[in-house]
Predict the 3D structure of the following.
Amino acid sequence: MLDLPPLRSDLFTTEPFALVGTQCESGHASFPNRDFCPVCYSTDVQPIELPRSGTVETFTTVHQAPPGVTVPYHLAFVRLPGPVVLLSRLQLATDGEPKIGDDVHIVPSRIRVDDVDHLTFAFELKEHA
């Protein structure tokens, strides 16, 4: 799957598979990466690799989607350690529902746009030992 063209080349790296954001000199992090800090408006920002794990803050189950998109699927706000919260698709290993507070980690995912498969990201539930 990692050999697919990325949906956007600035969202993640593949070796290792990780999200890329930006951080200003004051320590504010954001995703996706930006030319300025959305908190303090500094233009002195550097790319950073974001944590690969997070927690489900809230989610919804989507039952209606455009043609070609399989439903149902889950969308969640995922809080990464630090100030970044992002909206992402959740992939579940089994049928069922995620829960608020579930631990998740980033995984490569496939998305079809204009009849072409692209590489993107999703989060999946961590296995509980």
